[in-house]
């Protein structure tokens, strides 16, 4: 399909929006000759996946996603997360590893969620750095409170 559109043998093709935007970005300045249309033909959920049978890693991936969403919801960023230490909010205390045992239950240390945010940022930071440059608006990937479908599960 990609060769056909670049060579002019077809005028358009469909795929999920992320693949179309990725293709457009992969061909450099020639990508400016193409437009990803905003209409959505069908919704296809995309996300992280792992090899079947590795339940521990599955749990870590699932909770890492939840941690990045919680960090965004709390206003935590890679730059400011240390300012949330000793916060009086019990949910933030659990996130910071000051209370609760989620880290131990995952086989990780108590600071695991803090380390994720320090290393790569919250969900919005990652989206802005990695996906937005492809020309994809956040859309349904926004937090629920912002009109999207991303829900920050409690960290317990």
Could you walk me through the main structural features you see in this protein, from its secondary elements to its overall organization?
The protein contains seven helices and no strands. It has helices at 2-6, 17-26, 55-74, 90-95, 102-106, 112-120, 123-130.
| Unreliably modeled segments | none
SS field, number of helical segments:
7
Mean pLDDT score: 92
Largest sheet: none
Rg, please? 19 Å
Percentage of β-strand residues = under 5%
Gap from first CA to last CA = 46 Å
- The number of distinct β-strands equals 0
Q: Helix share of residues?
A: 40-55%
Which structural class do the helices and strands define?
Answer: mainly alpha
Order of helices and strands: HHHHHHH
**Rough outline:** elongated
Task: Summarize this structure as a short list of keywords or feature phrases.
156 residues; 7 helices; mainly alpha; 0% strand
């Amino acid at each position: 399909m990609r060769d056909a559109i670049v060579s002019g043998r077809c005028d358009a093709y469909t795929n999920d929006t992320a693949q179309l935007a990725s293709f457009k970005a992969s061909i450099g300045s020639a990508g400016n000759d193409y437009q990803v249309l905003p209409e959505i033909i069908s919704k296809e959920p995309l996300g992280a996946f792992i090899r079947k049978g590795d339940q521990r890693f599955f749990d870590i991936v699932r909770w890492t996603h939840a941690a990045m969403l919680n960090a965004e919801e709390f206003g935590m960023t890679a730059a400011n997360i240390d300012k949330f230490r000793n916060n009086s909010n019990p949910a933030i205390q659990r996130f910071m590893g000051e209370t609760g045992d989620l880290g131990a239950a995952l086989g990780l240390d108590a600071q695991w969620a803090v380390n994720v945010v320090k290393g790569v940022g919250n969900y919005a930071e990652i989206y802005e750095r990695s996906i937005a440059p492809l020309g994809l608006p956040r859309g349904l990937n926004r937090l629920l409170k912002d009109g999207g479908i991303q829900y920050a599960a409690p960290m317990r």
